[in-house]
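for the recovery benchmark. tokens below, seq after
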């Protein structure tokens, strides 16, 4: 027999005058003139239990403290007038205790089990079982499960087959460092934990599975930026005989089903499709937040003949390699910001690789601000018109090489949106960013790298010019990659893949891989491509990020049951930790520190 008749979230007015037994944790105990009130909590809710003085139950209740695990039996009664708690499902009733049993005492928790805490993340992770008792954390785990269940149902209804791909595998190509697992049987050999199921899902297409998906765990050993996890979960899918639109429709359907089930939100598919170039032009970034407008105005052409040298020089080099652009944006209503606030925007620009940000205030008499003196009266009128400036607006400008200007202006637009309260939680705007270039230049190393990964196919229109483009202007080569963005975040990416060996080899070679190298790493895929590989494409997006966005969580960690710190450690289990010499010997490893 169960230890309880009801959960702590279940009792309603309809249960009045019935007996009930509950089990859960002591949320708090209050003493009202000798009568004790205990709020007992479980995953489903909280119920108020009353202990009258002089009873045995009252005596036991005097012994309990916060987070004790208890069992209570009693009678349900209506709460006295004026004490009904409308916030709570069980707020109309209370249970008058006849007995209380302590199932397990609790040490004093290192932090309070309440909805809002600002305890250090490490401490919360060390006592994760206590942190997970908190309602927002339980809500997140439940929402996550709901999301995945709805998504699975949807994809199953579309003939997708859920297939598990191996965890012990070979290096995969997502560009991060691999987590390695030494082999005991093969001395000196290592497995890599998967950075993604990419190659396996392509092989499943060659195997004729047609439609695959997986709620896939991915592991990437990167230097952790704030709020990135070394292991994370992706919804990973792949389809045969498809165009990007087919993939997008399935992703839209499944993520919308997940969002509706987990958060009661209609994402309103189909999502807008925006070409990469258009996104860069209008928003300076390939993951624009579309909850607000504030699109950029391209002033490059105009600036070619303007008086302001900084703008003119940037515009003069437009179109050349590394050439300049001039962009303006109207921060509507920000004209009243203090000098300090505006100066802080320049600091923001510097943090994003720029020198600063030029600005003009729109006032009744025209334009005002540090760069106003560089423009003629006529130019001021034109600029104001181009940016649709009204008194009270703040106009901001970026001029210089394209990468730097976009590097500043894209994030700046989001920052302005934050400051102006335009990025409020509760609205969800998705878009597909399409037509990414095949390659991009790594700004740190200068190397040309695949924008997504080396299995992405070039666009059909560029196929007949492939040799010429690879040789002369690889950065102009169009690719069949796409991203899904939501509210200024990249949720995931995918592409139509290369399905012919010769093409795949050319891309590897272009990327500087020697034949022996790519044979050793990806030879099995190249060989598989020779056995009637069908055209195919797919997509993957992060569950942790999706859940965090859906719930408005501050940190990705709150969407994960057992996350790691920013140093990739787990304070609860103590992982990673040293192992015995014997274990090391088993796997043929000697450490050097
Ligand atoms: N494997 C890719 C990633 O993990 C997604 C894809 O191309 O489908 O980013």
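predicted aa per position
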């Amino acid at each position: 027999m169960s230890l309880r008749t009801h959960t702590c979230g279940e009792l309603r007015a309809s249960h009045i005058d019935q007996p009930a037994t509950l089990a859960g944790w002591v949320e708090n105990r209050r003493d009202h003139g000798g009568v004790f009130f205990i709020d007992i909590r479980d995953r489903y809710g909280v119920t108020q239990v009353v202990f009258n003085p002089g009873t045995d139950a009252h005596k036991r209740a005097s012994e309990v403290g916060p987070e004790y695990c208890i069992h209570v039996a009693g009678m349900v009664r209506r709460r006295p007038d004026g004490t009904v708690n409308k916030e709570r499902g069980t707020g109309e009733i209370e249970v008058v205790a006849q007995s209380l049993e302590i199932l397990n005492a609790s040490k004093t928790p290192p932090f309070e089990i309440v909805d809002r805490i600002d305890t250090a993340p490490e401490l919360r992770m060390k006592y994760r079982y206590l942190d997970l008792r908190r309602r927002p954390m339980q809500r997140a785990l439940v929402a996550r499960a709901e999301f995945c269940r709805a998504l699975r149902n949807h994809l199953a209804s579309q003939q997708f087959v859920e297939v598990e791909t191996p965890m012990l595998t070979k290096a995969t190509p997502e560009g991060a460092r691999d987590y390695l697992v030494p082999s005991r049987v093969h001395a000196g050999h290592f497995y890599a934990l998967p950075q993604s199921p990419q190659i396996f899902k392509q092989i499943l297409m060659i195997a004729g599975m047609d439609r695959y998906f997986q709620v896939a765990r991915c592991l990437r050993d990167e230097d952790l930026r704030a709020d990135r996890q070394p292991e994370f979960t992706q919804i990973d899918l792949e389809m045969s005989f498809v165009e990007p639109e087919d993939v997008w429709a399935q992703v839209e359907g499944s993520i919308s089903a997940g969002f509706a089930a987990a958060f009661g939100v209609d994402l309103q598919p189909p999502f807008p499709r925006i070409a990469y170039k258009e996104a860069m032009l209008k928003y300076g970034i390939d993951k624009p937040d579309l909850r607000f407008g504030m699109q950029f105005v391209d002033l490059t052409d105009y600036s070619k003949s303007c008086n302001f040298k900084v703008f003119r020089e940037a515009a003069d080099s437009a179109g050349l390699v590394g050439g300049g652009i001039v962009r303006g944006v109207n921060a509507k209503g920000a004209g009243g910001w203090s000098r300090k606030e505006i100066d802080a925007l320049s600091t923001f620009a510097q943090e994003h690789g720029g020198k600063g940000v030029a600005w003009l205030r729109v006032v009744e008499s025209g334009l005002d601000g540090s760069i106003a003196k560089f423009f003629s009266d006529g130019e001021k009128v034109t600029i104001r018109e181009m940016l649709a400036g009204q008194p009270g607006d703040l106009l901001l400008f970026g001029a210089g090489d394209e990468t730097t200007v976009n590097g500043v202006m894209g994030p700046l637009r989001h920052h302005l949106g934050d400051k102006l309260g335009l990025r409020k939680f509760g609205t969800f705007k998705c878009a597909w960013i399409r037509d990414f270039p095949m390659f991009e230049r790594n700004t740190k190393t200068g190397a040309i790298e695949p924008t997504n990964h080396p299995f992405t196919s070039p666009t059909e229109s560029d196929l007949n010019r492939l040799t010429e483009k690879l040789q002369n202007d690889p950065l102009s080569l169009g690719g069949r990659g796409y991203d899904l963005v939501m509210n200024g975040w990249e949720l995931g990416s995918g592409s139509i893949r290369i399905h012919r060996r010769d093409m795949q080899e050319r891309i590897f070679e272009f990327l500087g891989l020697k034949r022996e190298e790519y044979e050793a790493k990806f030879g099995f895929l190249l060989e598989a491509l020779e056995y009637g590989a069908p055209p195919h494409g797919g997509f993957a997006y992060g569950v942790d990020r999706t859940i965090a966005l859906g719930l408005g969580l501050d940190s990705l960690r709150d969407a994960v049951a057992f996350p790691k710190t920013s140093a990739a450690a787990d304070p609860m289990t103590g992982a990673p930790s040293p192992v015995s010499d014997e274990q090391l010997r088993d796997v043929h490893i000697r450490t050097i520190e």
